Structure formats: structure tokens, C-alpha cells
Amino acid sequence: MGITKLLIANRGEIALRIQRAARDLGIKTVQVHSEADTEMLAVKLADEAICIGPAPAAKSYLDIDAILKAARDSGADAIHPGYGFLSENAEFADAVVAAGLIFVGPSGDTIRMMGDKAAARASALAAGVPTVPGSEGIITDMAAAEALAGQIGFPVMIKAAAGGGGRGIRVAETAEEFRTLAPQASAEAKAAFGDGGIYIEKLIARARHVEVQIMGDGQDVVHFFDRECSLQRRRQKVWEEAPSAALDDTTREALCQSAVALAKSVNYLGAGTLEYLYDDATGAFYFIEMNTRIQVEHPVTEMITGHDLLAEMIRVAGGAPLSLRQSDIQRRGHAIEVRLNAEDPANNFMPFPGVVSGLRLPDGPGVRMDHMLYQGYAIPPFYDSLLGKLVVWADTREAALTRLGRALGELQVDGLPTTAPLFSALLGDAELRANHVHTKWLEPWLETHAHLIAQEKDKAA
Ligand code: ADP
Ligand code: ADP
Ligand code: MG
């Protein structure tokens, strides 16, 4: 087959990232956009740009018919969904294929099987991959679920099968809480994802979030090692590293092999990430979910392996076999990514769209920025607040931390607050530098270190 013209059904920094991979492969690009995004860098740089509707995502980036019409009108032969929006929507993947186009990702059936978190747990169990103790499939009988929660032991997590981005999750400490929270979680999931299915998992306290990047061509699957994403706020990642400094080589190998086994068991095609919780104290890891798309934090993996994950996912979508064997994928050094959001970290992370009135970007050895900024750009207020990611690489984690400090010192975004001062403040923390963190480490830290973040913000101003 092979792809000659790729339509990018996304916006912001990931739209640019996809565009660059396409251009590196000699593929033409069509950038769709909303009325609010006409000044977006990805629109300016694409070979063609097509407006598909008004600002609200439901009327543009989530409008399947409008996107397919743009593909027909432009003669695109493939669609890349990026992350978020329609990237894990099985109906969209099916509709793209039904229209005679290539979907850059797995089939609708694979998305249904792995994108539904309860179904993915069942696939993991079948492939012999350890999961968090919890319900088998979706909860249908509340009384039975409450009894099961008692058996597993409180606290338990109530999770939406269709959930993502940290939404649709509740923690129940007691049976009584469970009775009130379970119907709430179901209603919220129904409203947010159009699917009220929920399941339960034991809460693993003080766990780390580790994940494995894989790529499949429908026959073979390779892994690109692990990432650690334990620094989270509201269950959303804010800082990611590759590899996880918490894993020894034996555990890393077992973790990566379990991810390959699970992906192979579903003949996976495309880029995917298997997320796990890792318990330092026992050395145990538990599969929690699979993201059947490219992830925000993929650059840290590219930095330690030297491979272009976007290019490879476009190649395999076009029908090519994997260009890499497992032995071709080696890792070197350590990479760290921090998420630059248009939010004020000194003011409860209030979103703060505005006009970029001045801009100085970090550069030099081991520094990469995937971003959507340019001087004079007015950030539209309608979408996710991610402006870009600052990524650094060095031989060791310690050197990468030092380099991150250097790069943050060079970075200057005028006109709106960003999360950069948070990262400058974090770099001074001894626990973080020693990697003594877990998924609930950052939130209390933010409470007790608000003064440091405010100080860093003043220093940068
Ligand atoms: P990653 O590990 O790549 O950061 P996230 O789960 O944080 O993955 O999601 C990446 C982006 O996609 C975020 O902007 C998030 O808000 C969005 N997102 C994830 N899942 C959904 C979903 N089901 N519906 C809408 N947006 C989603
Ligand atoms: P999402 O689809 O929203 O990304 P995940 O299932 O990946 O949801 O969980 C998001 C985050 O919630 C994890 O990174 C972790 O911090 C926390 N979490 C999820 N499941 C558990 C669990 N069983 N115990 C403790 N924390 C959990
Ligand atoms: Mg997740």
C-alpha cells in the first residue's frame, strides 16, 4: 500500500510532530482545524489546511463526517488521529477504513478490545500478565460488587471502562462510600464517555506508574523499553522519564516481555503503551490499561533509543513490516520530559490562555522541544492547556536533571503563565532527585512547597 498523503485529525504540538514525521518520509500532509485554530503553526506549515467546523471540539475535531469529507476533498489516503480526541474511538477507526482510507493505528476491533479498560484486563489475564486484583469485567450487580470490594479489601478504586485522562475514577475507603460513589462514577462516565460501565480495582498505595512502549505490525511486536510517569496531578502526568530509574534489569526485562506477550496475543498493529503500577516494596508490577495510540510522552523513548516512533507507526500503518528487530533497539542514557501547560502553578493551576508576546526557546546539546509556540500566537481557550514539552537527554539521570535546569533557565515565555516554575522548584527537591516518588507524591508536595513555586515564578518574570 504505502501512504502518499496523510490527513492529521488533531491539533497543537502533536499535529506538528505528525507533520514532521510525514515530511521526513516524503508524505504530503493535510491539516484539518477548527475556526479557532486558523493561526495554529500546524496549519501554517502543512501542505494543505482545511477548516472542518467551529471551535467546540464536538463540532470539529470530534466530527467524524467532517473529517472524512476533508479526506475525500483533499485526496488524502490515510488519517492520523494523534492522542485524545478520536484517537481511541473504535467507530472512527472503522469509519476511516470503511471510507477506503488507512487509519494510522490499530483496527476498530483491537481498540474495542484494548481501549475498553475492563476488557483489556481480561486480555491481560489471558496472556498471563499480572493485573490489579479486582472485578472480572464490568460491574452489573452493585451488591455483588460491594461484596467483592470487601473481599479485595478497602480502599478500592472505581474506574470507568471507557475512561481516560484521569477522568471517571473514584476511591472508596469503606463499603458505605462505595454505595454512594459507584453510581456517581457510572453517571460521570456516562456523561463524559457515553458509556457508564465501571469496574473495581484494589488501590495500590505508594505505587509508581511505569509503562512500556510497544510497536506491532500485525505479526510481530517489539518494545522500546519503559518510561516512568509517577509525577502526577489529578492522575494526569506532568513529568516523565525514560527509563524508569526504579527498575533493575531483571524486572525491566520481565515487564517489557509481559507487554510484548500481551500485544502479540492480540496481533497488535501500530504504536501502543501498556501502563502498569509498580510496587517498590515488593517488586511486583500490575497491568492497569493499554493506550492504543501514540502518547504525549513518547519523545523520552525516542531520546534513549534513537528511533522515530511516529515514522515507524506511519510505515506499519501503510502495510510495511516493522523495520526493526528487537535486537536493533538499544537504549542509552536517560531522558526527562516536562509538560509546559498554559496554567499558573502558583495559582492552583488555573488555565491561562493568552498571547505569546515574547519567546526564547532552550537549545544546545541534549535538548528537544516539541511545542506549538511562536511569538504573537494567541492560545485559543477551547482546548487542552498543553503548549508543548521540554525534553532533555544526558548520559545519566543526574546529568539529565542538571541539563533540565539549564534548559529551563534558557526558556522564556512572555504574556502568559506556564508550568515551567513548577519544574524549576521541583529540581531543588532532594527526594525527587533521589527518585523517591510515587503517584501520590506530587500533590501533597504542591501544598507544602507553594512558596517555592511562587519564588521561581517571580525569578523568571
Ligand atoms: P498520555 O499518557 O499520553 O498523557 P493521557 O491519558 O493523559 O495519555 O491522554 C492524553 C491526552 O488525551 C490528554 O490531553 C487527555 O486529556 C486526552 N484524553 C485521554 N483519554 C481521553 C478520552 N477518553 N476522551 C477525551 N480525551 C482523552
Ligand atoms: P486513565 O485511563 O485515566 O489514564 P489509568 O487506569 O491509567 O486511567 O489510571 C490513571 C492513574 O490513576 C494511574 O497512573 C495511577 O496514578 C492511578 N491509579 C490507577 N489505578 C490505580 C490503582 N489500582 N491503585 C492506585 N492507583 C491507581
Ligand atoms: Mg492511563
TrEMBL record:
Gene3D superfamilies named among the record's database cross-references: ATP-grasp fold, B domain (3.30.470.20)
Sequence ranges assigned to domain Biotin carboxylation in this UniProt record: 2-447
Enzyme class: ligase
Matching InterPro entries: ACC_Biotin_Carboxylase (IPR051602), ATP-grasp (IPR011761), BC-like_N (IPR005481), Biotin_carboxylation_dom (IPR011764), Biotin_COase_C (IPR005482), CPAse_ATP-bd (IPR005479), PreATP-grasp_dom_sf (IPR016185), Rudment_hybrid_motif (IPR011054)
EC number: 6.3.4.14
Protein name: biotin carboxylase
Occurrences of domain ATP-grasp (ranges): 121-318
Functional summary from the UniProt entry: This protein is a component of the acetyl coenzyme A carboxylase complex; first, biotin carboxylase catalyzes the carboxylation of the carrier protein and then the transcarboxylase transfers the carboxyl group to form malonyl-CoA.
SUPFAM superfamilies linked to this entry: Glutathione synthetase ATP-binding domain-like (SSF56059), PreATP-grasp domain (SSF52440), Rudiment single hybrid motif (SSF51246)
Keyword annotations from UniProtKB, A to Z: ATP-binding, Ligase, Nucleotide-binding, Plasmid
Claim: ATP-binding is one of the keywords in the record: yes
Catalytic activity: N(6)-biotinyl-L-lysyl-[protein] + hydrogencarbonate + ATP = N(6)-carboxybiotinyl-L-lysyl-[protein] + ADP + phosphate + H(+)
The species this protein was found in: Thioclava litoralis
